[in-house]
Design the sequence.
């Protein structure tokens, strides 16, 4: 092993009292390793096929939509204290958001909506991209009388990502 080349002898206690072997002649008998490989390996004969280089493994490309949905999942963390989404979601202080995009407002069974949302639902208003964008910017300004205490999202990119995430749960 390399240890025997550098040490005069193996210390009895396993290595805490090692002494360096300053005899450099001992290194001549040890194979030297380089970027091309160990020096004791002979070169292949001329004309022998060389192994093909191995291509580096690359991660699968993520589409722009997937990246946007993933970003929206991060934005949705702000909503999780009041809303759930996905299979098995339940109403909390806010209604479930599974299938919200395209759904009529105030349409989740078993949730007690504010009068403003009940009226909007009765008018036939639905959650489309335009309505959700305006609501998420300033909920109380968009729907006066809403019980939702959230102040809104300032970043347009966050709103776009959140809508992409919500849209990925079609119910």
Sequence:
């Amino acid at each position: 092993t390399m240890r025997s080349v550098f040490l005069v002898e193996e210390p009895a206690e396993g290595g805490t009292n090692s002494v360096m072997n300053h005899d450099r002649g001992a290194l001549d008998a040890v194979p030297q390793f380089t970027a091309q490989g160990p020096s004791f390996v002979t070169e292949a004969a001329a004309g022998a096929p060389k192994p093909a280089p191995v291509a580096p493994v690359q991660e699968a490309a993520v589409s722009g939509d997937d990246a946007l949905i993933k970003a929206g999942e991060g934005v949705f963390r702000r909503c999780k204290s009041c809303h759930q989404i996905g299979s098995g979601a339940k109403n909390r202080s806010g209604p479930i958001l599974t299938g919200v995009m395209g759904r009529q407002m105030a349409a989740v069974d078993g949730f007690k909506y504010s009068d403003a949302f009940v009226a909007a639902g009765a008018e036939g208003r639905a959650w489309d991209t335009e309505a959700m964008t305006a609501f998420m910017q300033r909920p109380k300004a968009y729907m006066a009388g809403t019980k939702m205490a959230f102040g809104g999202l300032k970043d347009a990119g966050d709103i776009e990502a959140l809508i992409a995430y919500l849209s990925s749960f079609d119910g």
Summary: The first strand starts at residue 33 and ends at 34.
